[in-house]
Every structure is written in C-alpha cells, then in structure tokens.
Design brief:
Layout (H helix, E strand, L loop, with lengths): L6 E3 L11 H15 L3 E3 L5 E2 L8 E3 L19 H13 L3 E6 L3 E2 L4 E11 L2 E17 L19 E5 L10 E4 L26 E3 L4 H18 L3 E4 L7 H15 L5 E4 L6 H10 L5 E2 L2 H13 L13 H4 L5 E3 L20 H10 L4 E5 H5 L1 E6 L5 E6 L5 H10 L5 E4 L5 E6 L10 E6 L4 E6 L8 E4 L8 E2 L5 E6 L4 E6 L1
Parallel strand pairs: 1-2, 1-16, 2-5, 5-12, 12-13, 13-14, 15-16
Antiparallel strand pairs: 3-4, 6-11, 7-8, 7-10, 9-10, 9-11, 17-18, 19-20, 20-21, 21-26, 22-25, 23-24, 23-26
Helix pairs in contact: 1-2, 3-4, 8-10
The structure holds calcium ion.
Length: 496
C-alpha cells in the first residue's frame, strides 16, 4: 500500500511580488516533507503580463530570464532560482505540479489592424452588426527574448478573440477575430455551455484550430519538461478550450516524460457535477479534476451554521460520485477573500473542511498556502471599497496532515445519521503501525457518535489529536466506542 498523497498549493493570490517565492520553497521543503506533504503545486512560472500572478500569460519561454514586462524575474523569482527550488523539492522526493495557462495571452507588444465581429456577450453565437476593421493589441514579438528557444511570433491568426488593452479581463467587450481559414465562429468543440459558446475567456484567447499554435505549444511543453522534469500539470480554465487538443497536448507531454506517469489536474470551474463528469469522459481518463461542488458545499455550510444539514455535504460531489483520483480542496487563490471567485470557508469551519479532505478515503487533498502560513493583504472588494484581510493558519492542520500520512488507512465506516453531527472511522492497515482513526464533527452543539473502529483496536485507549477534547476513550471488545466532539468543532481520535 502506498502512503497517502497530499498536495499543497504553494502560493496564494496576494503573495508579495518581491521575487521570493522560489527561495522560500527551497527553505521550506524539508518542513513540508516532514509534515507529510507529497506534492507541491506551484504558480505559473513564466513571465506574466505586467509581472502579475501568472494567469495572464505573456511569454511561456521566459521563466524569469529576459527583461520583459518590466523585469527579468517573474513575481516569484528568477529562472535559476526556480530551477534550483524544483531540484530541492525533487531531492526531498516530493513531486511538482506546474501550472499551465494555455487559454489566453496578455500584454501584447504591438497592435494589428484586423477584421473583427461583435456579438452578444451572453449569447456569443448571436452576431451584432457586420464585421469591421479594428486596431487590436494582439501581436507578441517578445523583444527581450529575441527569438531564443523559439522564433514563433503570436499574431491575430493565433487567437480567436481579443479585447481592448484597457479591458484586460473584461469579457463584456471583446471581439471575435475573423480568420479566413477556421470558419466564421468560435471554436465549436469547447464544452462549457454557458453564454452560447464559452471559448472566449479573456485577453487574447488562443485559437487551437491553428495547427501552428498546437505545434508551438507542444514544442514548449517538451522544452519545459526537459528543463525541470515536472511530475504533473495543472491546466487552467479547461472549460474554455478545445478538449481534444488538451488530450493531444497531454499525450504529447506524457510521451516526452516516458515511463513516469504524469498527474494532470484540470480546473473546470463549475458546480454542475454532470459537466465535470462529461469532461472526464471526453478526456478518456487523462485528467483528474478539482472537486468544485464540494468546495461550494463547504462555503455554504460554513455560512449556515447549524441550519445546514451536514449529511448533504457530499451530495453531487466528485468525492462521492467519481472519486478516482479527484482533487478535494477547501480554499484556493481564486476563492480567497477579495478574489474573482470569492467564496471562502468561514474560519470556524476550516478545521472541519480540512478534516474531511484529509482523513477520508476518497479524493486527494490539496491544502492551501494560507491554511499553513496565513496571509495579510489589502485590495478592493466587489463593493469598490478597500479591505484589509487577515487569514490565520488553520488550527490543528499539521496534526491532521500527519494523521493522513501515518494513520488514515484501511476500511472506512461512515456514520452520517444526524443533520448536525457526522463521523467516520478508518480501521487501519498492517503496513502502518498503530494506524486507524475516528473523526467526529458537528455544526451544532457538543455531541458524540457511537462508531466501530474495528476489533483490532479492542481495549486500546484513544485520544483526540487536536486537543479539543481532553478525555481518553477506551475501545470496547467489539471494536466500538462513543467518540465525543465539542460544539462547532472536530475531534480526531487516534491511538494513545
Ligand atoms: Ca478559449
């Protein structure tokens, strides 16, 4: 039996733009290994528009090596620091997931005069008016890189749609670029059904129908893999891209990686389980998916307190309906306060949510950076006002990650029989000494749950690793015990 995997998302949106993240990773990796983290998900490592977070791709080939977009380094450091940090992670036998944004580019170097078509932004198959000529910012010449690694110049023929420079990220005012060769509409193979066709997301949206684009991306993926030997790819915004081309690019990368089986984690942002399952089917098992519905259930449960029937947490989620290697998570860089998909989990519920993703059999948990390190930042909220946010580390998280790594194995027994208090046990496995655990959590008042942890534990004394409960519990001769929990809290019982 392999040890349980645990992914850590090693960044958040507001990580300081001081070029220190790669060095911080290098310093922290032995601590992460000790804690039980097995895989680190890193932010986009290439040069982003205006040196930003990384999701506005400017130049895939510039990992902090060329003076472009105002700096040589990226938000996170230089190419050398990146390569060294990745080496350090691999030395500690942890895996690396790289973040790859292939839907769009931003920060073009030159404008072009091209034929464009307006449409209804909410029904993009509905054309508005006739095509007309417009000057758009869509030519990427990479003057700082000067053709090193690749001489490919991205121009309007590489993109299906574009918005104006001042409207980066604005998807109310954008134009479809008229090409001679790819028909007169958006890429019809995109699966996301919203807005008539959801090919266009933002910036200069890449047109995969152009074979030269596909070849350039394959060439880049080969180069990137050869450079740092990553272990997996997180693919951003897949609901806006041709899924068959994603399959093609993943097969290509897997071929380059040879015998090493790569992880592929797809970000398909929808609460609709059917859509997630459909994408999984189209990818023919190539991608693992983030459990977005589960995240929203955590968010909702954390706001409703004891009015939320906690037995519903797993309804229509991937962990329940299609758990094979799905990725469960609490918060991320998009859902944290003041971000685009803001839907944070209220503080009191965070230990409960993390216990659920870490200590159950289903799903591979992804722990968010701020859950371990906390964060403090300012930004404008949706109300247009400035807000200061302080996130503190999630209590008991280290202990729960350790329990996952060493003890949360074997048969799982669920006790989801009360609207406010649920629990489950893990019986343990021979390969992991003293393994097994019992978890009780509630969004109501202090309570208990009678649960079977298995006869192998008969007569053993259990304690609550979180320290929330002070008493000791003895397992009876049939392998059962009454496990307690405080109000609005979680207790994780393990052998003393
Ligand atoms: Ca697209």
């Amino acid at each position: 039996m392999n040890p349980n995997e645990t992914i850590m998302q090693f960044f958040h949106w507001y990580y300081p733009a001081d070029g220190s993240l790669w060095n911080k990773l290098k310093e922290e990796v032995s601590k992460l290994q000790e804690m039980g983290i097995t895989t680190v998900w890193l932010p986009p490592a290439y040069k982003a528009c205006d040196g930003g977070v990384g999701y506005g791709t400017y130049d895939l080939w510039d990992l902090g090596e060329f003076d472009q977009q105002g700096n040589v380094r990226t938000k996170y450091g230089t190419k050398d620091e990146y390569v060294q940090a990745v080496e350090e992670v691999h030395k500690h036998n942890l895996k690396i997931i790289v973040d790859v944004v292939l839907n769009h580019k931003m920060g073009a170097d030159e404008t072009e005069k091209v034929l464009v078509q307006d449409q209804d932004p909410h029904d993009r198959l509905k054309k508005v008016g006739e095509p007309y000529e417009r000057e758009i910012l869509s030519k990427f010449t990479f003057p700082g890189r000067k053709g090193k690694y690749s001489e490919y110049i991205w121009d309007f023929q590489s993109f299906s749609g574009v918005n104006d420079k001042d409207d980066l990220g604005n998807n109310e005012h954008f134009y479809r670029i008229i090409h001679d060769q790819y028909g007169d509409n958006w890429d019809e193979s995109v699966l996301g059904g919203e807005n008539g066709n959801y090919d266009y997301l933002m910036g200069c949206d890449i047109d995969f129908r152009n074979p030269a684009v596909r070849e350039e991306l394959k060439k880049w993926l080969s180069w990137y893999y050869d450079l740092i030997k990553f272990d997996g790819i997180r693919i951003d915004a897949i609901k806006h891209m041709n899924p068959y081309v994603i399959n093609e690019l993943l097969d290509h990368t897997q071929y380059i990686a040879g015998e090493k089986k790569l992880m592929n984690v797809a970000e398909h942002w929808t609460q609709d389980l059917g859509e997630l399952l459909h994408y999984k089917e189209v990818s023919q098992g190539r991608v693992q998916m983030f459990d977005v519905p589960l995240h929203y259930h955590f968010h909702e449960a954390s706001l409703k307190g004891d009015q939320y029937d906690i037995r519903q947490l797993f309804d229509n989620t991937l962990v329940k309906e299609a758990c094979d290697r799905c990725i469960s998570f609490g918060d991320n860089h998009d859902t944290q306060p003041l971000q685009m998909l803001e839907s944070p989990i209220d503080f009191w519920f965070k230990p409960l949510a993390n216990a659920i993703i870490l200590l159950r059999e289903q799903g591979i948990p992804c722990i968010f950076y701020t859950s371990i390190y906390g964060a403090k930042y300012r930004d404008k909220g949706k109300d247009g006002q400035d807000h200061e946010v302080e996130l503190v580390p999630v209590p008991h998280l280290y202990d729960m990650i350790k329990v996952r790594r060493h003890l949360a194995y074997g048969q799982q027994r669920d006790y989801f029989d009360h609207p406010n208090t649920i629990g489950w046990t893990r019986e343990g496995a021979d390969e992991f000494e003293n393994s097994g655990c019992a978890v009780v959590l509630t969004n109501g008042s202090e309570g208990y749950k009678d649960m079977e942890v298995g006869q192998r534990h008969a007569g053993q004394i259990f304690r609550d690793v979180t320290g929330n409960r002070q008493e000791e519990i003895t397992i009876n001769e049939d392998g059962w015990a009454r496990f307690t929990v405080n109000g609005g809290s979680v207790s994780v019982w393990i052998r003393k």
